[in-house]
Amino acid sequence: MNGMLLNDRKVFVGHFKSRKEREVEFGSKAMKFTNIYIKNFGEDFTDDKLKELFSGYGKTLSVRVMKDEMGCSRGFGFVNYAHHEDAQRVLDEMNGKEINGKVLYVGRAQKRLERQGELKRQFDQIKQERIQRYQVLWDVLSFQPGVNLYVKNLDDTIDDDRLRKEFSPYGTITSAKVMTDSTQSKGFGFVCFSSPEEATKAVTEMNGRIVATKPLYVALAQRREERKAILTNKYMQRMASLRTMASPVIDSYQSGYYMTVPQVCMFFSAYG
């Protein structure tokens, strides 16, 4: 049956492979690439000029500059080598190189299905990170008072596992999450304990402690409304203290008198 035509279509018959096996096989094939993708070389490049630029790295099987309907270069193309080692050397030496005032991009050429698969994996990863991020925020909003800690000034090398490890000596941790922007740490996170006593102990022991290269700031996490109320209360207390300080100065002048605005005296000296 393998190779037979069925309804004008060629049939492929082979051993069944699980998705994981196919991904491993696909990954190993991708590592042995020979076809490279080049872009940003401008509109004046031809097939011959591209071949002249890249043929010095090894035997080429095909060289092609992609053109528009007018026959002009679209600024990108492909070079297929006979050996993977030659293609890898081109990537290592030519990617980022400046040619005629333009910086080349040289990368492994990907088939459409492979590129779509990679984009899907990237999308799934971003989606999963967002789900985890929102789950942490939900935990913060719905936590039992006094068990969730806000930790900031984290070193860039600290991830979820390291954060959990640093706080685990102080009790049972139900969640530990470093907030990230894509894959880069945003420098803060949350640690949730199973009891207020454990959380309080962690604050006492960990606040100000140097982890990796930075001293941590650790405090009980607060809902936005609570934090706003505390800041408002501090502001009102500050304003009240300012009014109290200003009152004796005004009251020291008896009624019926007024204060003159202090005059600034200017002194000039003549230089002979």
From TrEMBL:
GO terms for molecular function: RNA binding. Belongs to the polyadenylate-binding protein type-1 family. It comes from the Eukaryota. It holds the Pfam family RRM_1. This is Poly(A) binding protein cytoplasmic 1 like. Residues 34-111, 147-223 form the RRM domain. Keywords: Repeat, RNA-binding. InterPro entries: Nucleotide-bd_a/b_plait_sf (IPR012677), RBD_domain_sf (IPR035979), RRM_dom (IPR000504). It comes from Salarias fasciatus (Jewelled blenny). CDD domains: RRM3_I_PABPs (cd12380), RRM4_I_PABPs (cd12381).
